[in-house]
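ok so I'm stuck.
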Amino acid sequence: MTYSLNRRALLAASGALAAAITFATPSFAEDPAFLNIGGGPSGGTFNVVATGLGDLMRAEFPDSIVGVQPGGSGPNLLRVAAGDADIGITSASNAADAWAGRDPATPEAPIQNVRGLMTFFPSAIQIWVDADSDIHSIEDLVGRQISAGQPGQTSWNAFNNLLAVHGMTIEDLEADGGQVHHLSWSESQSALRDGQLDAVMWVALYPHSTVLATETAREIRVLSLDEERVAEYLEAHGAGFSAVTLPVGLYQGQTEPALSVGTTTFLFANDEMDDETAYRVTSAIWNNLERFQQTHALLNYIETETAGRGMFVPIHPGATRFFEEQGIPMDAPSLN
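replied:
not stuck anymore, here's the structure
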């Protein structure tokens, strides 16, 4: 009898304790089952950054399976928009083209279901030549051996747009024995290093680690664009772009500043990502920023004045809440 009464009392006390715990403990959002990150080609900057980001996310979401996928600026937009990746890295210029259906991969289905999380670093149109080259302008590229990526890529499209504001085409460049080669990034840099190309044009980070490696063989400089042509480019093709000045010393052969057109590289998510997950992704980066910046030197660009600016697309509500709490300024999207 005594055992039975004590057992009932114990059960009653246990029930009361369980109820108290249920009502007193705050509810936390569950970790997503998967968190896939769209990075870049193996060994490239996007891949390195995405790998470091994956380490942060595994610590923030211990119950999630976090993976890093190869990709690139354009492919990441396609995958995140389709739900095949959860977050990805892209450029504001690429996002602008995809949003408007100008990207060759998205003419029938503009990508407007992505939202910004944080700006990482800048990139710009860069035309690299040997420091001693007699190429000093776009017009000087006529008759030369050039690489500007492959048709359909962001860099290829930007190169054609740049030629257009100069009243030129690929066919003009290929006069007098010139050729615009359809090479990959690594092939282009290797050919520039070996002297097989006169110029390489790319929308790329600056300074780019691969170009710095190229300078072990030869000093490199970047062409400065004409101020009027830059203004024309921004007016005709400028969504996601702005004028930038590449400084003296950016590369070993860079003895003068170079005017160019730049964009930003940022992290983004699908607009269906829940606000709490977006908030935690953003806060995990910011609260572990020093550790994250050890992943790549370009991440030192992330600071209070840059983290919420330069993303072409709307900022995710979860990231917006975090930025507001931290007093981090944000740009309104320039959707055109």
